[in-house]
Amino acid sequence: MQALLDAGLPVASSCSGDGVCAKCKIQVIEGMRNISPENATESFLRESKGLPGDQRISCQVQVLGDITIDTTYW
Ligand code: FES
Q1: Residue 62: which CATH number?
Q2: Which InterPro entries does this UniProt record tie to the protein (predicted)?
């Protein structure tokens, strides 16, 4: 989430990155290996929201290299 904001891109959120709303979800098109592993908060949101494996909760991940993403609200 912070990398997106630093790049000047909008990120949907109603919890300010606290890992509650899941509105900041992104679809990873390329580079899943360049994103930090899923933490417990993200795993809980994935289960409760039924998110597919190619979607990540952007406020809960760190970008470790090049990635290509999309969102439903861009
Ligand atoms: S901003 Fe709410 S879960 Fe990421």
Answers
A1: 3.10.20.30
A2: 2Fe-2S_ferredoxin-like_sf, 2Fe-2S_ferredoxin-type, Beta-grasp_dom_sf
